[in-house]
Amino acid sequence: MRVLIVEDELLLAEAIQTGLRRASIAADVVHDGDTALEHVSANDYDVVVLDRDIPGTHGDDVCARIAVEHPRTRVLMLTAARTLDDKVTGFERGADDYVAKPFEFPELVSRLRALERRNQPVAPPSLEAAGVRLDSFRQEVSRNGRQVRLSRKEFAVLELLMRADGGVLSAERLLEKAWDMNADPFTNTIRVTISTLRKKLGEPWVIQTVPGSGYRFDGPRG
């Protein structure tokens, strides 16, 4: 899952980004509306966390443009404007969800995951196949009952592969969804992450390499 945070309060933006990364969510940060629109046009974001009162293009106008130009990208307004009229206006401009500041971080993460699911086939929060069980809410993975400790990026990659339901995901797609914009697309990051995942999950390997195409989780979802 990849998120764009649009927030002009620098410390708050950094805190949200850090918290999302700890939840295995790739997060980029911008501080004004114009840069936000540029990033949304250049990247495949699942959700934009959008403050309304930001420099440059106003948050309401950013929301309206995303709704028209990028309909698969969800918008969660995260703002100090908390009256009923404010919320109604936000939804009228195309927001998919609205959270008023101050907020509880676990609720923000849950709402982001709920918005992400709207763009995907219905899938349970827990996935199980080939003896591997992944719980996205508890951030836990096990193989044949044995707990497997994964890094946040390893967890994100495994979740993407399992939710693909046997489909092949390219290294570029995995990098785009599990890392932020600071990731170097020319590194061997994906190859190393896949190799580490295989070792931690153990044999028989459940992540297969498809030459010239990418990787897939070799087992139907249970």
Automatic annotation (TrEMBL):
Where is the PTM 4-aspartylphosphate found along the chain?
A: 51
Under the heading InterPro entries, the entry gives: CheY-like_superfamily (IPR011006), OmpR/PhoB-type_DNA-bd (IPR001867), Sig_transdc_resp-reg_receiver (IPR001789), WalR-like (IPR039420), WH-like_DNA-bd_sf (IPR036388)
| Species the sequence originates in | Dactylosporangium salmoneum
Kindly list the organism's lineage: Bacteria, Bacillati, Actinomycetota, Actinomycetes, Micromonosporales
Feature: DNA-binding region: 124-219
Q: Which residue range or ranges hold the Response regulatory domain?
A: 2-116
SUPFAM superfamilies associated with the record: CheY-like (SSF52172)
Question: What are the alphabetically sorted keywords of the record?
Answer: DNA-binding, Phosphoprotein
| OmpR/PhoB-type domain segment(s) | 124-219
Q: Does the keyword Cell membrane apply?
A: no
| Top-level taxon of origin | Bacteria
**UniProt xrefs under Pfam families:** Response_reg (PF00072), Trans_reg_C (PF00486)
DNA-binding recorded as keyword: yes
Q: Which SMART domains match?
A: REC, Trans_reg_C
Identification of the protein by name: Response regulator transcription factor
